Amino acid sequence: MQNSLADCKVGEEVEVLSIEDDFIATKLIEMGMTENLKTRVVLIAPLGDPIAIDIKGFILSLRKSEAKKIRVKKIGQN
Q1: If 0-12 CB within 10 Å is exposed, 13-18 middle and 19+ buried, where does residue 76 land?
Q2: Cα 52 vs. chain centroid, distance in angstroms?
Q3: What is the DSSP letter of 35?
Q4: Over the stretch 43-63, which tens digit does the pLDDT of each residue have?
Q5: Are the C-beta atoms of residues 65 and 58 closer than 8 Å to each other?
Q6: Handedness of CA 41, 45, 49, 52 (dihedral sign)
Q7: pLDDT, tens digit, for every residue of 9-45?
Q8: CATH number of the domain at 2-74, out of 3.40.50.1950, 1.10.10.10, 2.30.30.90, 3.40.50.300?
Q9: Which of 26, 47, 67, 73 could bond 6 through an S-S bridge, CB–CB 3.0 to 4.6 Å?
């Protein structure tokens, strides 16, 4: 089942399927977020924005509006 990264909860592990916005895709790819990347949500601010994920030991903070454009599959689910 596909979700957006914005729908995930702290501690959930996900696999990145696609980035739907070409403008932010270029920036995210340069920072290590590629398709098939397995990552984990490490923090969501109290009001839900921003969201922080772990990319191979690098913590990347994303706006919720950006996270909504990233399609992910939760690991451990079919």
Answers
A1: exposed
A2: 8
A3: T
A4: 999 988 899 999 888 899 999
A5: no
A6: negative
A7: 999 999 999 999 888 898 988 888 888 999 999 999 9
A8: 2.30.30.90
A9: 67
